[in-house]
UniProtKB/TrEMBL annotation:
Pfam families: Terpene_syn_C_2 (PF19086). Its EC number is 4.2.3.-. PANTHER family: BETA-PINACENE SYNTHASE-RELATED, TERPENE SYNTHASE. GO terms for molecular function: metal ion binding; terpene synthase activity. Its cofactor is Mg(2+). Keywords: Lyase, Magnesium, Metal-binding. It comes from the Eukaryota. Transmembrane segments: none annotated. It comes from Sphaerobolus stellatus (strain SS14). GO terms for biological process: isoprenoid biosynthetic process. This is Terpene synthase.
Amino acid sequence: MSTPSGFFIPDLWAHCPYPAIYHPNGDAVVSESDEWILSRCTGISPSLRRELPHLMSGQLAAFCYNNCNDERLRLVCDFMITLFLMDDLSDEFKTKETEVFMDIIMNAMEEPNCYRPGITNGEKHPEVEPDASKLSRDYWARMRAGAGPEVQRRIISGVKEYLIAVRQQADDRRTGNIPELEKYIEHRRMSSGCRPLFHIIEYSLDFQLPEEVINHPLMVRMRDCANDWVAFSNDIFSFKVEYSRGDKHNMVAVMMERYKLNIQSSFDRVAALCIEAMKNYRECKAEFPSFGPEVDAQIEAYCYVMQSWMSGSLAWSFVTPRYLGPRRHEIRKTLWVDLTNQRLRSANGA
């Protein structure tokens, strides 16, 4: 079938009740974080190094963590751009290389004082410390100094889960596997990076929620719903870039390839899942029990950041050129993405 002329991005703003608010000192803090990563990434490819300032991950952090102080926002920015870098670096890896990469990062978080090369499945780690390890040791040494023990544990667990998902994604790229929808959703909740990024909410606000709050079934469900909104909407915005290069780890691609929907129907179906996630989040929040005035105030602040993630990620998708390119502001107005000169690698392009 011929490539479609384009598609309309569903208007998710119409279904997001939360305002997108940018941190009042966001730009200054983001500038410091950008300087930090550029000064430490000496070993990556020149092309990726040039791309780092254009990731604009710090701006995403400033949208999502707009209620924390400047010092904490700075660490959040450093953490987020490191996750973005991990994602971009992993695109170039084969499965075996991804396993080595994963172990190096986890070693850096578990032993942040110095780099100790190890062995993964018989593969020796580099003698010279990779940039991703340097960055991880750096931000984690600073972050753990201001995080409670349970918050630290949750962050480390979240990063490990994210890296496991990155490894699976590398394997899927190698084999050409496109999972069924339920499997994809389960994996996307891990590969989005939202789980560790939600775990640093407590760090950003300088408190530690009780375990019975963090593990309450409604709170677990709320995190999944917020994660789904952020991840699935990101699949909508990133589809053109990812699919044009043959990356099928995208829910729109799953709808097209697995369920043989046309391109616009695929976008509309993904949007429907976003809307359902928002509805479920709000219902869970309305039913959440009280844990006393002090903890309730912390819960409200915690939920505020998740809500800022849902609105802030939408706003950021039209700020960064990462997905929609130089015409992103026009696309924000029209919601139309032109594919006239775009070749989609799909067997079901219409």
